[in-house]
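Extended Data, panel c. Modelled sequence:
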Amino acid sequence: MNVLRWNEHGVKGCTDVVPAWWFETEGAVSGLHHTVICPRGWKSEATCSLTVAGSVVVLNYDGPYTKANTDAGIEPGAMKLVFEDVTRGRIVEVLWRNHRQQRFDRVDVAPSRTDDLEALEGNPKLVTHLRRERDPWLVKAKIAEVRAAQG
């Protein structure tokens, strides 16, 4: 599962949870859905088309998906993910084009994979023994991953 945590002003703290298997095969697919989780418990589903070519993936949230995404609280536009290489294992750059723009601009997004995340989360607390609190966004991302895998 790819986790894209936004650090931009309007969507700061929001997280796109996108299945990694979407990027395994080159080509184009329409009508896909993925989870978006934002601070204070807000959660929605984004609808997009997907184009995979070489080390670049474009998720398009506008065009035929504009109304569904607007109704779901998702900004229409397109997100371009640039990977380290054609295996598409590690995202090195994230770009965004809103529905009024022609060009993509680099955005402040922290990409990660849930299989890359370590168990050391939160602040240590002294209880009967030392343990760490679960980071709520990681819990939500894992729940979304399991639900997406189970249909």
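Residues 2-150 form one domain. This feature is highlighted in the accompanying rendering.
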